[in-house]
Amino acid sequence: LAATLGTGNGVRVWDWQQNRPPLADAAYGGASFGASWHQDGRLATSCDDGKLRLYRLPTAPDQGNAGLQKLAEQAAPGGKHPFALAFAPDGRSLAVGYDDNTRVDVVDGQTLQQRFAADTQGVGNGTLNSVAWSRDGQTLAAAGRWDRNGRNMVRRWPQAGRGPAQDTATTQNTIMHLASLPGGGWLVGASDPAWGVLTDNGTWQARAGAPQADLRGSKRDAFLLNQNGSKLQFDYEYGDKTAHRFDVAHRLLSA
């Protein structure tokens, strides 16, 4: 189990099945928000000091902290605040999303040297700070605070990240995490709170929306109370054109 820490405390790695002190690297110049494992024991991390770091786990169980071997350390090629990381299934590539711009880079999974930048033309706001490969490694996906017409977008690139961009509108708030699914596609979690499934062909399947009203962007003429205070009218969803009414006496919510 790996945890990246704030305020320059670096990374710690526990063998949770054994009662031993964690492996650690505290030589970080800022907060760290990204970590990605590959099944061969490599661990990549990102940090607000602008760097990417790559480690390998010890092969012998009694090597102690010296066993967290640093394989590479490089400045992130696309920004000062690298955020989310994702190893491609074959381990040859590592995707990097940023918290200070809309760039998505693919770096070498062994050296952290840049291989290429995915096409982010047309991403005009926010960030793409969540990244995930498809289970077969043929498609790269990214999302974050980028929205278009009130919907947060997921951008996909076929051809292992080098192909033409394909966009899908999904949730109404920041996408916090993407995770590849065994049968294809991605699980999408957002801070609406909401979640759903994005299929390989770009179809959005919402599974659960926000359980409470989102009053951002509410229109004043939609917020009304009747004369005796028994009914309240308000916008229910962000930017929603259909007001909802709550009947206090009967405890009913209706459009």
What does it look like?
The structure is a single chain. By secondary structure, this protein is mainly β. 0% of the residues lie in helices and 44% in strands. It is built from no helices and 23 strands. A four-stranded antiparallel sheet has the order 4-5-6-7, with no helix packed on it. A four-stranded antiparallel sheet has the order 8-9-10-11, with no helix packed on it. A hairpin with a 4-residue loop joins strand 5 (42-46) and strand 6. It is elongated and about 75 Å long. The termini are far apart. The relative contact order is 0.08.
Topology, please?
Blueprint: E1 2-4, E2 11-13, E3 23-25, E4 34-37, E5 42-46, E6 51-56, E7 69-75, E8 82-87, E9 93-98, E10 104-108, E11 114-117, E12 130-133, E13 140-148, E14 151-157, E15 166-169, E16 175-180, E17 186-190, E18 194-198, E19 204-208, E20 224-225, E21 231-235, E22 243-247, E23 252-254
Antiparallel strand pairs: 1-2, 2-3, 4-5, 5-6, 6-7, 8-9, 9-10, 10-11, 12-13, 13-14, 14-15, 16-17, 17-18, 18-19, 20-21, 21-22, 22-23
